[in-house]
Model the fold of this input.
Amino acid sequence: MEELIAIETQDLVKTFKTRQGEVTAVDGVTLQVRQGETFGLIGPDGAGKTTTTRVILGLLRRTAGESRILGYDSMRDTYAIRERVGYIAQQFSLPPDMTVIENMRFFADVQGVSPEEQKRRIPELLEFAGLSKFTKRLAGRLSGGMKKKLALACSLVHEPRVVMLDEPTLGVDPVSRREFWNLLGNLRAEKGLTIFVCTPYMDEAERCNWVGLMYRGRLIAHDAPKKIKTMVPGQLLEFTPSHFVPAQELVSTLEGVWEVQTYGLMLHVFVDDVVRRQHEIEAALTAQGITCTGMRQIEPRMEEAFISLIKRQGAGSKEQGAGSKGQGARGRG
Done:
């Protein structure tokens, strides 16, 4: 059976004119999001995630290419898209001097939800978001996590088929982030919503069905999280050296070492053969009076893959064909 596509772009380009000249914020992005899945768009600050999201929504004019939601063109069918899509912007703010219930009614009115439908939907959404006991509390007095839940409830009041969220959990505590993502998971499971989310958090990217990695306006990887993690080179060793900087510099020069990443006081070293290189690394460090503790092989996480792909992309942009260290599988798109 043919898969239904909720969001798609083809060679999407967005440029801005500045005093320094033309800047390309989105550079030929092609992606597809299937209906009923959670898609995570990740990347460093300035990668183009927010601009891509805003163009897909029709909030910014695209320069070239195509973009559609549920088959509706982002530029021509903005009213049809607004009726079918819920959106939480990066700087989304609730009127602080309005209560929880007043905010819900306000956004329902903006979306054209009838009073009869509001009586049915609003209590359901407040219960779903765990806010039923706080209907009379001013939005400005809610905790950060509760504000995010209220924003989500407001974005769902018109019963959209697609929800687009731009860094929705930025600045909230880990427990609130987990609760928010549990709500998203329930939405997808119970209502079959398509969820498109920009996030800087790698643990959130792990919870998505599909991930797109943006860097300098381009989509450099586009696959399931499990596949993204296989794009890193070789095998991964983790250890803590007694002298951090000298160890990092030395290990980077050894044969069979493809990449070195730092995590606090630990080094994460990608090698071609763990069994062979572990002994060589320990011997080289010992010869320089450096001890290492806790050396072990670990499986790459999304965070290691994220850093590795961006480092190789950056190296590739400076020098094409930089040898085995700059090569590796790249995702679609």
Notes: The chain has a mean pLDDT of 89. Residues 229-326 form a domain with the Alpha-Beta Plaits fold (CATH 3.30.70.100).
